[in-house]
Structures
1.
Amino acid sequence: MRLEENISLKQYTTFGCNETGRYFTNIKKTEEVIEAITWCKEKQLPYLVLGTGSNILFTKPFEGLILKMGIIGINKTNETATEVFLSVGAGENWHHFVSYCVQKGWGGIENLSLIPGTVGASPIQNIGAYGVEVQESIESVTALDTQTNHWVTLSNSECTFGYRNSLFKKEKNRYLITAVQFILKKQPQLRTEYGSIKEILHEKNIKNPSLADLSNAIVQIRTSKLPDPSQLGNAGSFFKNPSLSKTNFEELKNNFPELIAYPISDDTYKLAAGWLIENCGWKGARKGNVGCYDKQSLVIVNYGQATGKEIYDFSEEIIQSVLTKFNIVLEREVNIL
Ligand SMILES: Cc1cc2nc3c(=O)[nH]c(=O)nc-3n(C[C@H](O)[C@H](O)[C@H](O)COP(=O)(O)OP(=O)(O)OC[C@H]3O[C@@H](n4cnc5c(N)ncnc54)[C@H](O)[C@@H]3O)c2cc1C
């Protein structure tokens, strides 16, 4: 194992904060995972797997070993008349994998085009966008269970996926994912119901979109709405959309008729956290090096020199003002360290 010491994590996270990592190693093979974890256990040090750092905020130096996940490879393991089975290395770039599938004509994950990150991180928070979640295409996840030191293959149901949630978030840092198995469709049913997708397809006069048309439309929407982390540090949506019981939703709607929400079951509603934040006056607001993005108030941005602590404190102020005005506690989507 090649170890680096006291490295700056600035280039390893999309927030671009200059916190340090005590030890750092690149992981290219599964054998190296065992070596790294054994080393941490011997030294009694914490470990952290890092993909591209697009959903993480370091608020202080990390005093353990960072394993930069670099296991790559896309392998077709099986195929039927209607489906394709793939096993993909955890370090594979997510958008590269989506583009590969789109080009082959295999559907299921095209709505998740251009989400930053690695394949191995995709099940962690069950990435989702434009009406689709990755859990719909995951067959199983291969990981080292660092509690038992055994390799496990967890089925889709064992991963207990939920909205931006999974077993891997609930049992934080227990499972070190090295590969994800996907099932993709050869004759996919395209999901174009989102208003902005429909608009773009209409503008381009595309009546029967292909997988590539849909993926391109999503890339276009995302590029116009979200800040590019290479230009402006951010981690996408900082907060989750909160859910509310029907009764509480109706009460809130009475007080705030403009409230944006949609039903997710007979008695539960999901509220647009962006709307709540915007209505507390945060959209486009800036405090020193940190701000709330002017085109999407769910996104907190680093104007260049912000520390992780400054970003965290800014998010805390947002949480407090949403609580004061709406009596709703926003939960952070980004992993805080
Ligand atoms: C501009 C922008 C837009 C975004 N849009 C979306 C979106 O539309 N939908 C969405 O769901 N997310 C979105 N995100 C968030 C982010 O892209 C995803 O959460 C992504 O899956 C994170 O991948 P990563 O490799 O960067 O993970 P990291 O940030 O490196 O890690 C995230 C967490 O997963 C753990 N982890 C990573 N890899 C492994 C592994 N192999 N084994 C075990 N644990 C691991 C880490 O320890 C950490 O706790 C966006 C982010 C940005 C910057």
2.
Amino acid sequence: AERDAHAAPIRAELARSLRGRRFLDLLYRPAPQFLAPPADETIVCRCEEVTAGQIRDTARRLGVTGPNQMKAFLRCGMGPCQGRLCGPTVVELIAQERGVSAEETGYYRLRPPVKPVTLSELAALPPTDAAVKAVVR
Ligand code: FES
């Protein structure tokens, strides 16, 4: 109950932020050729230089079921943008190859930091007791 009470204002803010999201997703739906480029040589993951053909081939030959598993084989989604650019396309290509929906295929597991952070930014964080104890023996 205490956890739910703490989460209530955060959930309310999230709901406010997501209001209208479905409308925007429908209005600005990416073109089919963007989500699933027909040419195999099209670069899908710019960060890791992975092509549409490599993703199709890996999904077909190795039976990759989702984007997180695809990371292990091709590193797509592991570049500096952490899959922000390639995520929807990787999901769509895997889904088409498997003959299932994008929802069933899933999406990259998002982990912090949710945006690239430099080491100097991390080093500039004020030290906490827990952080000091973590490195002092
Ligand atoms: S484009 Fe794939 S990780 Fe950046």
3.
Amino acid sequence: MLLLEVQNLSAAYADGVEVLHNISLTVREGEMVTLIGANGAGKTTTLRAIMGLLRGRGTVKFKGENILGRETPDIARLGLSMVPEGRGVFPGLSVYDNLRIATTPWYGRGMSMANDLDRVYALFPILAERRTQLGWSLSGGQQQMLAIGRAIMARPKLMLLDEPSLGLAPNLVEEVFEKLKSINEQGVSILLVEQNAFMALEYSKLAYIIERGTVSAQMTSEALMQDESIKAAYLGG
Ligand SMILES: Nc1ncnc2c1ncn2[C@@H]1O[C@H](COP(=O)(O)OP(=O)(O)OP(=O)(O)O)[C@@H](O)[C@H]1O
Ligand SMILES: [Mg+2]
């Protein structure tokens, strides 16, 4: 089943300069899909436009429903959640409060937060251990886990992640990807932006290449690994 369908999405920032031009991509239920592209290509802007953080033109459908032009909290409520670049951990809040702040509309209707917290703590035991500590006291890798945990608290069907491995030591990069794999296996689809293309392609089956605000190629990770020109451009040859 098609979960996310983006068709001819164009978008501009407040300065009026259009940075996305007719982006089309899809994510099927259960898939993990990667967006690859050079600095400034429009990867972050694509995620932001899907999330309603930026006004766009075209079509963005989630579970068959058009979400373009809707407010971000409404989009989140439908089952989309984003882990922004730079993690966005609230430094003055404890780990627990960082998780709790991602409240869901189910609470107070016979559903409690306990199950969601248990799920996050089972996935990231370090967050349970550190739950009373402040967000800023965590290491970079732990903050990334916290940001992912917070996104899970909102019970997404689809998670958008912007460069989750940025600035992490190689062993932590692998750990983050292993966690994403488990989350994906638990039924959450994933749309991922990654500079660390090798790692991302190892974990996802399908990739889109974004060049100057447009999708220039869509291929399986396997085919991409074999394409010499793409390898040279995005995978360091
Ligand atoms: N707030 C903003 N206002 C105006 N232009 C912006 C803004 N943010 C980004 N841009 C421009 O939009 C274009 C796409 O940027 P975007 O951040 O989406 O690229 P990216 O692919 O995520 O790059 P990176 O790999 O560096 O994160 C760039 O030309 C950038 O300069
Ligand atoms: Mg970016």
